[in-house]
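FW: tagging you since you asked about this chain on Friday. Here's the raw sequence from the shared folder, copied in full. Didn't touch anything.
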Amino acid sequence: MSYFKVLGFDKEPFSTSPDPDFFYLSREHETALTNILIELRLKRGLSVILGDVGTGKTTLSRKLIQELKERDDCIFNIILDPTFEDEKLFLTSLVRNFEINVDTSASAGGATLLVLRESLERFLFQKGVTEGKTVILIIDEAQKLTENSLEILRLLLNYETNEFKLLQLVLLGQVELYSKIMNIANFFDRISLKFMLHPLDFEETKEMIEFRIRQAGYKSGMHLFLDEAVREIHQYSRGYPRQITMLCHRSLKNLVLKNRFVVDAALVKEIMDEELKSGWQRKDLLLQKNSF
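HL: got it, structure written out here
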């Protein structure tokens, strides 16, 4: 039997999969999501969300998709790995993802760049103007975009009416995306929404843990995590949601394995000490621990 069944959960509470139902909306995440939805509704064009590794960008993208699925006026796709060797591969991917019919009869080698661009342009005008739809492209791991790919996106953002952009673009990437964007002035100038995600504070860490526990079906009135344990988790994780999730998973697993009833500070410290002895603890976390 899985540890979470033993503890009274219906589901695993601290899976690292980007399940939007387990996404704790911190103040920053909620602000980011609300602002993205406003930008999409107004068809402003380009939104960029930056954040360090593990700040919840991917899960935010899944939460956004969950919201968009409830609307019948949106056509959207997400690219999870925007690593393309050249312009043709990128445009071919966009055409395929949006299921755009492309005439390849005039070219033995498949659609030319010109045909791909024209097909995308016709699609955007057909959906955006004739049918009144909002066409949205979400790109996760956007720091992997090359300058060439960013230039393609910039050109696609040029497709517009007198009132709105025909393509709504949401980029979610690590902070190194910032330097790439800053080097392309005519791309940076097109960003309507700029937002940076930061780690959680102690209270948000506590709320996130309680939220995920309840979402997993835990109904007991007994707290599984003491405040002292949450403080240790917050210290070691530095407030990064992914690290919080992994530490909580290990804490609950050890709770069962060691036949204990509650996660306290001592249990969390034992986990971190074991990690240190095994040589798996990250150096930045070790330096942080020694600074207290």
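FW: Residues 3-9+200-283 form a domain with the Helicase, Ruva Protein; domain 3 fold (CATH 1.10.8.60).
HL: agreed, and The radius of gyration is 23 Å.
FW: great, closing this out.
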